[in-house]
Automatic annotation (TrEMBL):
Listed InterPro entries: ETF_a/b_N, ETF_a/FixB, Rossmann-like_a/b/a_fold
Subcellular location: Mitochondrion matrix
Similarity remark: Belongs to the ETF alpha-subunit/FixB family.
Protein name listed in UniProt: Probable electron transfer flavoprotein subunit alpha, mitochondrial
Family annotation (Pfam families): ETF
UniProt biased composition (Basic and acidic residues): 19-28
GO biological process: one example: fatty acid beta-oxidation using acyl-CoA dehydrogenase
Comp. bias (Gly residues): 9-18
Residues covered by region (Disordered): 1-28
Length: 122
């Protein structure tokens, strides 16, 4: 399992836009960073690797959100919401996400990842 990964342009990546300084300021004010776990699933149930990633993210002591991208994946989103430590589930439900093609999932993950400091892909 890989991750969690800081987003591109963040601290340590040489983004040069001052984002690292703003993140440091927010952390010093007490704001928690949040982990986004991108769920691996078959549109019917979560893969064990997703549960493992959520458990690992829980050890970071940060809020955990899960992105479920698929077609007719409401049951997967419900299952993710019942996992201990998950605060929020983002459901992207569309026909073009049903086959789990990397190109479609990547576009959805990038769209969802804007407000997150760490990603854990499956």
């Amino acid at each position: 399992m890989l991750g969690p990964f800081p987003l591109a342009g963040g601290a340590g990546r040489g983004g040069g836009c001052g984002r690292a300084d703003r993140q440091t300021e927010k952390r010093s004010e007490g704001d928690l960073m949040t982990v986004l776990v991108i769920a691996e699933h078959d549109n019917r149930g979560l893969a064990g690797a997703t549960r493992n990633a959520i458990a690992a993210a829980g050890k970071l002591g940060m809020p955990i959100h899960v992105l479920v991208a698929g077609a007719g994946a409401e049951a997967v989103a419900d299952a993710a919401a019942r996992i201990a430590g998950v605060q929020k589930v983002l459901l992207a439900d569309a026909p073009h996400l049903g086959d789990g093609l990397a190109e479609n999932l990547a576009a959805q993950a990038v769209a969802a990842a804007g407000g997150y400091t760490h990603l854990s892909p499956m």
